[in-house]
Structures are given as C-alpha cells and as structure tokens.
C-alpha cells in the first residue's frame, strides 16, 4: 500500500514518477521526431545530480515507483550512476526503464546490477526494412540481440511496447505477440498520441483503435480481461495457456484519467502534471536558485499538485494543442 503524501485536488494519490533523462535519441521514429530534430542545449537539461535530487524528494514523499525514459535514456552519459543512486533510495519499490533497445546488448548486465527491475523495450516491427523506415535507422538486429541479452538475465519483468500505425505495421500484431510469448515477455500495443506536429505524418490517417487490435488478436488467442491495473492508460488481458499478458494503451478510446497516479519530470526539469496538458512546475528553477534547499524542493512538489488537471483532451481531428514531443516529456 502506498503512503504517498502527494494527493491532488481530485483525491488521486500520486506515487509514480516518470523521469525523462534526455530529449536526445539515437533513433528517429517517424511518429516521434523529425530526422533533423533540434535538441535542448545541455545547460537546459537537468544534471544527473539534479535528477537524483528530484527522485530523492519524491521517494521521501511516498513515491514507490520510478520509470526512467527519454529520448533514449541509455544514451545519456553516466546514466548507470544515476540509476544506482535512485535504485538505492529507501522506500522505492521499483525502478524501471523504457528503452529502444539499442544499448541493451552492451548494458543489460549493468542495468541489472544497478538495480533496474523491469525493462520495457519498444519494438514496432520484426521486419528489417520496415524497422529502418519507422526508426530511420538500420538497427533491428542490434535491438534483437539486446532483447536476447536481457532475456537471459533475471529481471522481474520484460515487456515489449509496440506503437501500431494502420497500414504500416498492423499486419504484424500477431507476429509481435508470438515473438513476445517465445521470449516470455509481456507486450503492450500503443495507440499513437498527438504530441507535437511532425512533417510528412498525418496522424488521423494511421490511427487504429486498440479495440480493433484486441478483436483481431482474440481470433487467435483466448483473451480475458485481467485484474491488473497500473493506474494508467493500460488495460491488460490474460492469454489462455500462457503466463504473459497483452496490454493496450489507448489514450483516445478509453479515458483513464480518474485513476491517474503519476506525474512526469521532463528532461529540462519541468514537473508535468498530465501528458495531455501543459500544466507544469519548473523544478529546475527552484533547484538552481536554492541548490541546497531540499525542504523547499519537497514543498514545491507538494504545492504543484494543485495544478494537476482532472483529465486530458486529445482529439485527432484538431491540430495538436500539445506542442511538446514525446521524446521531451518521456513516453
Ligand atoms: N526511446 C525510448 C523508447 O523508444 O522506448 C523511450 C522514450 S519513447 C518516447 C517511449 C515510448 O513512447 C516508446 O514506446 C515510443 O514508441 C512511444 N511513442 C513515441 N511517440 C509516440 C506517440 N506520438 N504516440 C504514442 N507513443 C509514442
Ligand atoms: Fe527515440 Fe524512443 Fe522517440 Fe523512437 S520513440 S525516436 S526511440 S525517443
């Protein structure tokens, strides 16, 4: 049970923090960023020490789970140091990461040793040419070797995340589930979210609902709704005869705001209350003006929760109101 001291005006207990440690990435997924994406200047990005300071404050306030994401978190220099510090915080139950998998072959063992307990690996296709089209990088084999590396280690859970774009990779959902089951991994299918305007990419045209995916998968596997809930936009299904689960992350078709238990720290140190709104608090400004004042940081975090909106508003028919990209806020 969580004893979080962070409770928002709608009575929701916030015990889950997602931290984007960089907006940079070694891939250029078409739905996430342009090939010539511009990145924040280094001085605007939180230092690893500042990230650890925010994590420490959150854990002291009752946060039990932290997910490290990006951009690509594993391309950030010295990230293992920060992971070790965060994993060792007394009271933290879970340190998890979301990664594109490119560094896992090299870093899998170190991640385990640092105290990471779960890894989500993003994998949208098993076809080499399509992988290169989607990520603009020819790195499928490297990612697959990375997955083999972490599968051989005793992580608590490994999961695949696949963004499904209609007419692009929806023909692979069955193959992706087969791959996940063979590797004893769970798998989540993600609906694309309208975050940021990307050239040559019409989001409404490629939208495919989670319900449609589930109906299709239901023809091949016997799926039943699972009790498991993460407080987020994921719904999980048990697969008859298997110990793995299939999840659907669907911000459009299912509203999950009433159980939202999370906030996000952006790479530039903004505490973001909701993925679909701009409400935020600049924690970097507080830390840089008062570097030693831990109590002030904690109080700022507590006070900022009044900004958490009741729900988000995504609409594919309209121009995105959210001009941030997922890479800057952490997916
Ligand atoms: N680079 C890492 C990775 O790809 O896993 C971590 C960051 S990435 C932003 C986190 C997740 O967000 C990935 O699974 C990615 O596919 C997903 N993502 C990125 N842009 C998205 C969008 N517009 N809609 C839905 N998911 C998106
Ligand atoms: Fe990089 Fe992840 Fe965005 Fe792909 S989804 S460009 S891997 S941050």
Description:
By secondary structure, the chain is of the alpha/beta class. It has a single domain, classed as Aldolase class I (TIM Barrel, Alpha-Beta Barrel). Helices cover 30% and strands 17% of the residues. The site of iron/sulfur cluster (SF4) has 12 residues, from loops.
Q: Which value, in Å, is the CA radius of gyration?
A: 19 Å
The DSSP helix count reads 11
The biggest beta sheet is recorded as: 12 strands, mixed
Order of helices and strands: EHEHEHEHHEHEHHEEEEEEHHH
Please state the structural category. Answer: alpha/beta
Question: In terms of quaternary structure, what is this?
Answer: single chain
Mean of the pLDDT scores?
89
Low-confidence stretches: 316-323
Overall number of domains: 1
* CATH architecture group name: Alpha-Beta Barrel
Portion of residues in beta strands equals: 15-25%
Distance between the termini: 25 Å
Subunit structure: Monomer and homodimer.
Domain Radical SAM core: 9-228
GO molecular function: 4 iron, 4 sulfur cluster binding; cyclic pyranopterin monophosphate synthase activity; GTP 3',8'-cyclase activity; GTP binding; metal ion binding; S-adenosyl-L-methionine binding
Function: Catalyzes the cyclization of GTP to (8S)-3',8-cyclo-7,8-dihydroguanosine 5'-triphosphate.
The gist of it:
This protein is α/β, with parallel strands linked by helices and 331 residues long.
